[in-house]
Amino acid sequence: MTEKQPGLATAESDEDGCRTEVKQAGIAAGGVEHQSGVVTLGDFSFECGQTLPMVQVAFETWGRLNAARDNAVVVCHALTGDAHAAAGAEGQAGWWNGLIGPGCFLDTTRFFVICSNVLGGCSGSTGPATIGPDDRPYALRFPLITVRDMVKAQMRLLDALGVRRVQLVVGGSLGGMQAWEWPLLDPERVLRSAIIAADARFSALAIGYNEVMRQAIVGDPAWQHGNYYGTGKRPTHGLGLARSIAMLTYRTDTLFEARFGREEVTPPAPTDRPGSAETGTFFENEACASSPLAAFTQPLYQVESYLRHHGRKLDARFDANSYLYLTRAMDSHDIGRGRGGLLQALENLKASVFLVGIDTDYLYSVSALEHTAQLAQDVGVRLDFHVVSSDFGHDAFLAEPEKLGQVLKGVWQA
Q1: Contact at 8 Å (CB) between 365 and 335?
Q2: CA nearest 156: which of 16, 277, 289, 30?
Q3: Is 190 exposed, middle or buried (0-12, 13-18, 19+ CB in 10 A)?
Q4: Which residue from 389, 387, 388, 394 is spatially nearest to 361, judged by alpha carbons?
Q5: How far apart are CA 203 and CA 107, in angstroms?
Q6: Is the pLDDT of residue 28 over 90?
Q7: CB atoms within 10 A of CB 278
Q8: pLDDT of res. 321
Q9: In angstroms, rounded to a whole number, what is the distance separating the alpha carbons of residues 333 and 14?
């Protein structure tokens, strides 16, 4: 049998029954080696005590694992992200293009970059929509998951890829929560962790927003108690509403005002009424004037249309049950849980930590991150704290990768 090259997974099983299958391998832009595939972990035990058979994790890699197997970087995605963090052999842009590639922050001529779809997701990894052993989707039979479950699945993926040492784990939001957990769950393997727009534990405000989003989904009659698969109906309205709520927390009032102001969706109907402004008034809008029903069901302002557009986009690519499971997993995030509290958990951090806040982030305020950073430094954690200035709010780590990349370069000096 030909020896497997570092960083190139093959369709074979190890002694634990773990099977790695490469679906696509090729050369991405800049001559970067790229592969996408699925690793089947076999039985997987969740924190809640349940076990599922034949759990799978979808992944992509860029670059090449070196002979020492110690040049890996793990990229963790946010709530509705997936494994496609950068362009692959097919050329389709990734969600973190500009940060991954030759000469970039994650230089693929030096590092073997790995990103996987989280457990419970809907982009190739096992989740609520996955068909179980009884040939039915798991739906709400899928176990409640935690961020730690996600990381443990990723750890087994790295085992399957032959990774011995991780130079860096990096992620924002839900990805940042994973970056908090990685060095605690695998301290012998992880050297550095870069955590963006995520605190060491999820706040009451953020839990509250997640709850409202979940209620939007479960309150949609088409949700059918989670059993909508194969019925021809799905909770499109509920998921779209959840996404609209999320967008209001991800962005800032400055951005919304600059982009939309009070612009209406369509020009108002002509009017000869004296005193009316050239741009019309709310009561002269065609949709509003046609019927009260239209006034309450059709967007009148550009900002309303924008939110609905994002709701439709998410519904076209994301599973509502996964949204429920992943937001509840975010709620569970607290590195001190089961470890003797936050201070004890921080004392156990051996990796260096690079913590990044965003000055306009409504969900993870700079003051909260500063407090955690000070606690960490007080107990001896090697932690650098930086603040990015942006009008994009929480979403800045996705919307302004170049600005973020300039800050993140400091990771390699930590």
Answers
A1: no
A2: 16
A3: buried
A4: 394
A5: 34
A6: no
A7: 5
A8: 98
A9: 32
Predicted confidence (pLDDT) at residue 282 exceeds the cutoff of 80: no
Residue 155 CB partners (closer than 8 Å, separation 6+): 185, 186, 189
Give the total residue count for the chain.
414
Instruction: Round to whole Å and give the CA distance between 50 and 14.
Output: 24
pLDDT score recorded for residue 279:
47
Could you give the dihedral angle defined by the CA atoms of residues 35, 38, 39 and 40, in that order, rounded to the nearest 10 degrees?
-160
First to last CA, the chain: 42
Q: What is the C-alpha separation between 145 and 125, in angstroms, rounded?
A: 13
Task: Extract the tokens encoding 88.
Answer: 């692959």
The whole-angstrom separation of Cα 118 and Cα 184 is: 18
Q: Which residues contact 36 (CB under 8 A, 6 or more apart)?
A: 22, 23, 24, 25, 58, 59, 60, 61, 83, 84, 88
Task: List the catalytic residues.
Answer: 173, 361, 394
Show Cβ contacts of residue 83 under 8 Å, excluding neighbours closer than 6 positions.
Answer: 36, 58, 59, 60, 77, 115, 116, 117, 123, 124
pLDDT score of 223: 98
Q: Which two structure tokens, joined as six digits, stand for 288?
A: 């509003």
- pLDDT tens per residue across span 331-386: 999 999 999 999 999 999 999 999 999 999 999 999 999 999 999 999 999 999 99
For the chain, what is the radius of gyration of the CA atoms?
A: 23
Cα dihedral 204, 253, 326, 176 sign? negative
Q: Are 84 and 92 in contact (CB under 8 A)?
A: yes
Residue 128 CA to residue 224 CA, distance in Å, equals: 14
Mean pLDDT of the chain: 91
Q: Report whether pLDDT(277) > 50.
A: no
CA dihedral 226, 230, 235, 236 (to 10 degrees): 150
